[in-house]
């Protein structure tokens, strides 16, 4: 009977050693992987006893920050799209104005060419008469 109790005590000691090794590895991992700000929140979690209260709070805070960032990015993208549409309409209006000016100038040039031809004909006829 004493023998099973000795095995039980050895198992407890062995289990405590495993827990110590796992705890040490976790601490080492926290130091290597987590940034300083996250380390503070992890330390706070350890101080609260790891009940998950701080994890629930940080999870809610992370979700809130995500949604705020998401909404802000949607607003910014909407503003950029609106500005692009505004620029497209402005450019279309400018192109329409320029094309109408070009058409009117083309008509003026054609009229000037006709007048030039009439003047040349008149000059040619007056030279022939002289």
In a few lines, what is going on in this structure?
By secondary structure, this protein is mainly alpha-helical.
Task: For the structure shown, list the relevant keywords.
130 residues
What does the model show?
- The chain is an all-alpha fold and 130 residues long.
- It has three helices and no strands.
- It has helices at 2-33, 36-47, 53-129.
- The chain is rod-shaped, with a radius of gyration of 43 Å.
- Residues 1-8 have low confidence and may be disordered.
Strand-helix topology:
Blueprint: H1 2-33, H2 36-47, H3 53-129
- How many distinct beta strands? 0
What is the end-to-end distance?
151 Å
Rg measurement, Å: 43 Å
Indicate the structural class: mainly alpha
Helix count, per DSSP?
Answer: 3
**What proportion strand?**
under 5%
> What about the largest sheet?
none
Helix percentage:
over 70%
- Anisotropy-based shape: rod-shaped
Q: Which spans have pLDDT < 50 for at least 5 consecutive residues?
A: 1-8
Instruction: Give the mean pLDDT.
Output: 78
């Amino acid at each position: 009977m004493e023998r099973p109790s000795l095995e039980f005590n050895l198992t407890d000691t062995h289990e405590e050693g495993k827990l110590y090794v796992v705890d040490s590895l976790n601490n080492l991992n926290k130091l290597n992987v987590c940034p300083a700000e996250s380390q503070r929140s992890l330390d706070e979690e350890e101080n609260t006893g790891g009940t998950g209260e701080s994890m629930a709070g940080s999870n809610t805070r992370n979700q809130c920050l995500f949604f705020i960032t998401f909404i802000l990015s949607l607003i910014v993208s909407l503003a950029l799209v609106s500005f692009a549409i505004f620029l497209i309409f402005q450019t279309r209006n400018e192109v329409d104005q320029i094309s109408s000016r070009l058409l009117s100038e083309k008509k003026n040039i054609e009229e000037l060419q006709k007048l030039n031809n009439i003047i040349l004909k008149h000059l040619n006829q007056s030279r022939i008469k002289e």
